[in-house]
Amino acid sequence: MRPNRALEIGTGLFVLLGFAALFFLSTQLPGSGLKLGKPEGFLVTAAFDNVGDLKTGSPVSMAGVNIGRVEAVTVDPVAYKAVVTLRIQPQFSSIPEDSDASIQTAGLLGGKYVGIGPGGSDVYLKEGSTIEFTQSAIVLENLINKFFASFASRGGGNNGSGADEPAPQD
Amino acid sequence: MSLSDGLIVSGLRSIGAVSIFLGRTLAQIPGSLLRPRLIVHQIYNAGARSLIIIMLCGLFVGMVLGLQGFDLLQRFGSEDALGVAAALGLLKELGPVVGALLFAGRAGTALTSEIGLMKATDQLTAMRMMAVDPMRFVVAPRFLGGLIALPLLVAVFNVVGLFGAQLIGVQLMGVDPGAFWSQMQGAVELDDVTEGVVKSIVFGAACSLIAVYQGYHAAPTAEGVGLATTRTVVNSSVLTLLLDYILTARFL
Amino acid sequence: MGAGSRDAEVVVDVHDVDYVVGRRAIFNGLGIQARRGRITAIMGPSGTGKTTLLRLITGQIEPSRGTVQVFGRTLAGLPQRELFGLRRRMGMLFQNGALLTDISVFENVAFPLREHSGLPEPLIRQLVLTKLHAVGLRGAAQLMPAELSGGMARRVALARAIVMDPELLIYDEPFVGLDPISMGVILRLIKQMNESLGITSIVVSHDVEELSRVAHDSYLLSEGKVVASGTPEELRASNLEVVRQFMEGIADGPVPFHYPAPDYFGQLLGDSVAGGSR
Q1: Do B128 and C85 touch (CB under 8 A)?
Q2: Which residues of chain A does B192 touch, with a Cβ-Cβ cutoff of 8 Å?
Q3: In CATH, what number does C1-78+202-243 get?
Q4: Residue-number span of the structural domain to which A120 is assigned
Q5: 10 Å Cβ neighbour count for A74?
Q6: Please, which of A54, A81, B56, B112 could form a disulfide with B215 given CB 3.0 to 4.6 Å?
Q7: What's the total number of domains in chain A?
Q8: Residue A35 maps to a domain
Q9: Choosing among B42, B129, B133, B142, which should be mutated to test the C contact, i.e. which has the most C CBs within 10 A?
Q10: Predicted confidence band at A161 (pLDDT cuts at 50, 70, 90)?
Q11: Which one of A8, A18, A31 has the shortest CB-CB distance to B152?
Q12: pLDDT of residue B109
C-alpha cells in the first residue's frame, strides 16, 4: 500500500542512525570504550603494597607517553599485596625487564596511573613477565598524618625550656 | 464501593491499574511480534517522526552546555575540561531526561490521542467484535515502538549535543580541540555510557506505558481524549524525573 | 432464500434481564427474541439503553439478573476464546462505521479475513472485491476512510461485517444522519442481506418509518422494558398510549415534554431559581 515503502525506509534510516550514535558514544568517548575484536598488546603483572584508587582502564605511561592500560586489579591474600595486570601495546616490546612501576597521580586531583621507569637490562618485558620493582601510591591521608606526626614531635621538644635544640635538618 | 476514594486509596488504585495494564501489554508482546510490520510502523511513528525535534533540541542543549560549562570552568581555569563536562552531563543526565520529556510531549501525546480517538470512534469495540484483541493489535505494538525508539533518540540527542557543545566551546570560545576530546576520552567511562542507555530504556518503557494506558482508558469523547493527552505529559514527566533520581542513586 | 418463518429457531434470546448501573436500573425484566432468518427491529426513545442492549447481546457486559443466550449458548461467564468464537459468527455495523482510519477501504474489509481465515491472498482479494461489489463500492477500494462520506463509510462497514459470512448481523442506528437516498441504499442492503443470504438481522433504531418497511418483528422499549412487540402493523394498530406516542411522533404524552421542574408561576413570581412560595 502507499505509505509502507517510504515508511519502512524512513524507519530503517532512523534505526541505523540511532545505532550509529550509540556505537559512536560507546566506543569513541570513553577512555576504555567498547573495543571490538581481540585486544592488542601483551600482559605483564606487578605487585604493590597499596594501589590507591587505581582503576581498570587507567593509563600506563613511560616518560609521560601512554603505552598501555591497566587490565585488572586483584589482591593476593597470601602475600598481602595488590596485583595489577597491565596490557602493554605491542609496539613497546623493548622495555627492560628491570624497569620499575610506580603509581602516580595525574595533576592535583587527577586519577591514578602507572608510570614505568626504565631499567638497564637487555632482557625485555614480554607476555607474562613480572615487574619486580614497584612503588606504591602515595595516599594523601598517610602523607598528612606523617607531616603532623613530625610536626608534633618537633613542637613537643620545644615545650618548656625553649628552643635551644636546633631544628632537625631534613 | 466508595464513590470518592481518598488520596492514598486512589493512588494505590492507579498504581495497581497501571501495573495490571503493563502485565497485559507484556503478555501480548509475543503475539504482536508476529506482525512486525505493525511494530515497524510504530517505531517510525514514535521515533523517526520525533527525530527533528530531538536533534534540534539536542543541538540547543549542547550549545547551552558549551556556554555555561565554559563560563563555569573558566572560573577555575579548567576550560580544557569542557569536553568532559559536556559529555558527562549529556550522557548521564541531560540526554535521557530531556530526551524523555521531549518524547512524552511529541510521541507520547500522539500515542495517547491515537488510541483515545480509536476508542471514541468505536474502532476498538469493532476490533473486539471481529474477535481481534486491541491489546495485541493496537497497544502492544505502540508500547514496543516507543520502548525501542527512545534509547535511539537519546543517542542521537547526545551526539548532536556534543557537536553543539563543541561548536560553542571550540569554534566560538577557543577551547583547544585536542584538549576537548582527549580530556573527554580520559574521563568518560563505559559505565557512564551504560548508565545513560539504561536510563533511556527505562524512561522509554515508562513514558510509552503511560501514553498507551491513558489513551486506552480515555473517556470516549473529544474532551476525554484531550484530558488524557494532558495526563500523559504530566505523568510521564513526573515519573521520568522520579525514576531518574532512583537510577542515578543506584548507579553512584 | 427468503425470510424465516414466525416460529423459526431463536438465535438471540434475552430472557428476563435486569441490568443495573449504580442505583439506576437500565433494564427491568427485559425479554427479546430474534429468530433465525428474520429482521428484528428494536425501537425506543433516546436514552432507553438501546446501545446497552447491544453490548449485552455481544457479550461486552453481563446482565445483573437473567440470561442472554446467543446461538444457544449463555454469554455470561464464557471464556474469552469461546466468546471470540461466537463473535466470529456475528457481524456488527456501528453507528459511525468504525472503520480503522489508517488503512484503506480494501484493507478494512480484508481485516477479519486476514486475522482469522488463513486464506491465501488471491482468495482474500476476490472475497473483498465481491463484498464491496455487493454494497456498491468496489470502485472505492483504494480510498482511505477519511475520504468517504458518512453513507459510504457505513456501506464499507457493512461489507466488512459480512465478509466472514456471519449468521447474525447487528445494525446499530444505521439510518442516523443519512440523506434520503443513502437511507434508501442502506434499507435495500439490509433487506438484501436478509433475503438473499438468510442472515438473521437485529436493527436498533428510532426511525419508525424506515424500520417498518423492512422489519418482521418489532420491539418497542421504554423505561427499561418491552412495552410492545409484534409486527410493525400490530404496533401501529396498538392502543397503548406509549406506543402511539412513539409511532406517531407526538410531542407530549407518557414521555413528557417538560423536564421535571417546580411549579411555573411559583418560580416566576418567586425570588429564587429553585422555586418560590407555593
Answers
A1: no
A2: 30
A3: 3.40.50.300
A4: 42-141
A5: 10
A6: B112
A7: 1
A8: no
A9: B129
A10: very low
A11: A18
A12: 95
